[in-house]
Amino acid sequence: MPGPIVILGIFVADTAYRAPRQPRMGETILGEGFKLGPGGKGSNQAVAAARAGGDVHLVSRLARDAFGDLALKTWAEAGVTPEVTRTDDGYTGAAYIFVESGSGDNAIIVAPGVAGDISEEDIDARADLIRSASVFVTQLEQPLPAAIRALQIAREAGVTTVLNPAPAAPLPDGTLALCDWLTPNESEAEALTGLPVTDPATAEAAARTLILMGAGGVVVTLGAQGAMLVQGDRAVHLPAIDAGPVVETTGAGDAFNGGFAVALSEGRTPEEAVRFGIATAGISVTRPGTAPSMPSREEIEAALRA
């Protein structure tokens, strides 16, 4: 049996507002809807991976408050094993999400709360769990030193490492060399390389630059254009899967990463893993919300067959 999927990341409570446009500074407008739900990239990816059939453990920090309770409830329902430190000081994170009603596109502000205190000591305390993993996944919402320490532990143990470089941020030299897979979207790939990314051809160019910078393989997610997989001499564009009308794109990248991690943990080829991630994301955008939009294994398999 493969080892578990271990994910390092944060939970935030998503406060999602739907309106025709964002207000200008000093302006108040009426919205068309509001929803409170579970979010945070690490948490979303963990929920996506668990619903897709993975044995998932999530390393994080929570406060002892209502949003922390929401996190534990969310993970229990999805089948995620929490590996968390809870504290009486501070607050569990929250996110403001604006959803443009016409397109479903979004803009987000994240306040990580106590998850902003995840430390290298937290990682060292769970080093054995990370070493036991088949796949380790992290992002850039928690402090970077903790992410780098976890990638180092995983890499030294021969665990497949995935870094989703979101939100985009400068990375210290040597960070990409710890990553078997890097999974940026268009804007993140552009931020890391300085190259414009608008289509599969420009995504391939950015991916090759990221490999020269140290990444083992790169998957640039392209939304409605699918994803570009680059590894060694191989470059493959895999198209998106249309699972229905787009309702909301929030969390689509997290859905992809969760599905991608599950497929890697099962020993699928990189192309199969990317296709599995694309199907996971393709279903998620047909539903509102982030964690609640993540599909089941059966739904993903049906989308792939279709």
Question: What's the helix and strand layout?
Answer:
Elements lengths: L4 E4 L3 E8 L13 E7 L1 H11 L4 E8 L2 H13 L2 E7 L4 E9 L5 E8 L6 H6 L1 H5 L3 E4 L5 H13 L3 E4 L17 E2 L3 H8 L6 H13 L4 E5 L5 E5 L2 E5 L13 H14 L4 H15 L12 H9 L1
Parallel strand pairs: 1-4, 1-8, 2-6, 4-5, 8-9, 9-10, 10-11
Antiparallel strand pairs: 2-3, 6-7, 11-12, 12-13
Describe this entry's structure for a reader.
The protein is α/β, with parallel strands linked by helices and 306 residues long. It has one domain: UDP-N-acetylmuramoyl-L-alanine:D-glutamate ligase. The protein is built from ten helices and 13 strands. The strands form two sheets. The protein has a nine-stranded mixed beta sheet, with helices on both faces. Strands 3-2-6-7 form a four-stranded mixed beta sheet. The protein is globular. The model has no long low-confidence stretch (mean pLDDT 95).
What is the approximate shape? globular
Q: Which CATH-level-2 architecture? A: 3-Layer(aba) Sandwich
CATH class: Alpha Beta
| Strand-residue proportion | 15-25%
Q: What proportion of the residues is helical, as a percent range?
A: 25-40%
Based on CA atoms alone, the radius of gyration comes out at 18 Å
**Side-by-side strand order of the widest sheet:** 5-4-1-8-9-10-11-12-13
User: Please, how many helices?
Assistant: 10
Describe the largest sheet: 9 strands, mixed
Q: Class by helix and strand content?
A: alpha/beta
CATH topology: UDP-N-acetylmuramoyl-L-alanine:D-glutamate ligase
Mean pLDDT: 95
Give me the strand/helix succession: EEEHEHEEEHHEHEEHHEEEHHH
Distance between the termini: 29 Å
CATH homology superfamily name: Ribokinase
pLDDT < 50 runs, ≥5 residues: none
